[in-house]
Prior knowledge:
It contains 8 helices and 4 strands. The chain is an alpha+beta fold.
Amino acid sequence: xxxxxxxxxxxxxxxxxxxxxxxxxxxxxxxxxxxxxxxxxxxxxxxxxxxxxxxxxxxxxxxxxxxxxxxxxxxxxxxxxxxxxxxxxxxxxxxxxxxxxxxxxxxxxxxxxxxxxxxxxxxxxxxxxxxxxxxxxxxxxxxxxxxxxxxxxx
Length: 154
């Protein structure tokens, strides 16, 4: 075992993530969970997926973007258990994951997630927040950012 598979195997679970979160952070996670609404079309698309994907994610309980990411993964998995999550801290992400993903330490943020196939080959990377917002002014506005961080932009 080596590479991304080894890092994945040493990660911790979502339940462990919840176990290290403060009461305030848990409250914020629950609020996000309540706010996320998934359209019927998206629910049907999720149900149609018939493959499992391993997700190795560098997260921290204090990070609002990581909370949105993980709550979204939770909602999707409740519809169809697609994602097997393995979580690591920001520190381990920088020291162990960034090099594999060719992300410079200064550009590494939480959440950073790598989606892996059954042989632990990289399918895709999620870095910070959804790609569509990297090319859009949506998060450049206070209202857009607040809406995203409240779980309203799944």
